[in-house]
Amino acid sequence: MIDPDILRKDPDILRAALSKRGAPDITDDLIAKNQHLRSLKTQWQAAQEERGQLSKTIGAFLQAGDTASAEAAKARVALLKETLDTLKTQQDQAEEDFQNAWQAVPNIPLPEIPEGKDETDNVDQHRWGTPRPDQTPAHELIADTVHWAEYAAVSAVRMSGTRFVMLTGMLARLERALGQFMLDVHTREHGYKEVSPPYLVHAHALFGTGQLPKFEEDQFKTTTGHYLIPTAEVPLTNMVADMIISQGLPLRFTAHTPCFRSEAGSAGRDTAGLIRLHQFHKVELVSITTPEEAAEEHERMTRCAEVILERLELPYRRVLLCTGDMGFTAEKTYDLEVWMPAQQTYREISSCSRFGTFQARRMNARYRREDTGATAFVHTLNGSGLAVGRTLGALLENFFQDSYSPLPLPKVLHPYMGGITELELSPSRD
């Protein structure tokens, strides 16, 4: 969350940020709630001070033999206790009301973020590779022709419902190879520490990274009260929750995990293939750093994801998201979009974001400044390096030749496939 002091110091910044994001202007309501809360705290403190002072005088009155004054002071102390109890109840309710409203406030975009309503207003910044001009079959159709493998869509739907897939044989091996390749590059070359995190977390972990309470409907919750992780961003970033880091920044973590999302708000979109699933694999990158290094770390992280696409010989573009398309927790986001020949368009395969102190405030994650010794909130970043299923789909479409020719694999994957350099295809089943 952002610093609530902004409501006293410069609420117009918040008002402008909400406008840029296309969000309702609730600034005045937040100011009123905050002022009411502060007023109750002031009243409680004043009553507490009066009670303390009167308590000290009771003994003095009794020692002086002034019983009447002592009894009057006792009566006033008793009344103040009731007042304090009432004020505390009101203060707790006012705190809850303010926090509920404040938690719904998105992060403030950085000044360089272009204004816009949706993805059509994003800014194309960089392109790599030559997009394939001919339209290929969709990757789920190509997958169904890979020799020794089945896409097994019917089996997956029968067991789990829609938006679940089952990869078998060489496709399952290729998915595993992609994840291992990504991890090796990020750990051996890019300096990320590999982590094998829990896949189940408590609500406070999702609150820390911003998925709760706003995106509750997008989460899978178990009967034990745990949540399945929607991304490894959650456990990796929460590694520094409630900590004061004294040295070693930036911290860089990576993990290859399954991810689980209900996709509650995306009915009817990308229901076929590997683009939008309830369960998928992803290699995640997380950085914990200082305010001074956050901008450079963001560029570095995005470049780490780009390297994966280039080594896999997949054409892509980098876009800077506008204010209306940026995520709730982000202050700046780059999307990497890979070329999908079947659709003749670029599709998101990685999103790399800066969050400033937004997540750190929720998690109480701090570091100790070397220059002053004072503590301050860390800056957090995360990005996909990459979404494995989408990468698999992009490979199938971009390397497809025809329905009867083997599908060649990028050279960097040959060692991970045990020397296999191509996938045999068989005629599609009717």
What keyword list fits this structure?
430 residues; alpha+beta; Helix Hairpins; BirA Bifunctional Protein, domain 2; eight-stranded mixed sheet; three-stranded mixed sheet; 12 helices; elongated
Kindly state the mean pLDDT as a whole number? Answer: 92
CATH architecture of the largest domain: 2-Layer Sandwich
Strand content: 15-25%
Number of domains: 2
Structural summary, described in words:
There is one protein chain. The chain has 430 residues and is α+β, with helices and mostly antiparallel strands. It folds into two domains: 97 residues, Helix Hairpins, CATH 1.10.287; 305 residues, Bira Bifunctional Protein, Domain 2 (BirA Bifunctional Protein, domain 2, 2-Layer Sandwich). Helices cover 39% and strands 18% of the residues. It has an eight-stranded mixed sheet. Strand 9 and strand 10 form a beta hairpin. Helix 7 packs across helix 12. The longest helix has 37 residues. The protein is elongated, with a radius of gyration of 28 Å. The model has no long low-confidence stretch (mean pLDDT 92).
SSE inventory with pairings:
Blueprint: H1 6-9, H2 11-20, H3 27-63, H4 67-102, E1 123-128, H5 139-143, H6 153-160, H7 169-188, E2 193-194, E3 200-201, H8 203-209, E4 227-228, H9 233-237, E5 244-245, E6 251-260, E7 279-289, H10 294-311, E8 316-320, E9 332-340, E10 345-354, H11 358-363, E11 366-368, E12 375-377, E13 379-387, H12 388-399, E14 407-408, E15 422-423
Parallel strand pairs: 2-6, 5-11
Antiparallel strand pairs: 1-8, 3-4, 6-7, 7-13, 8-9, 9-10, 10-13, 11-12, 14-15
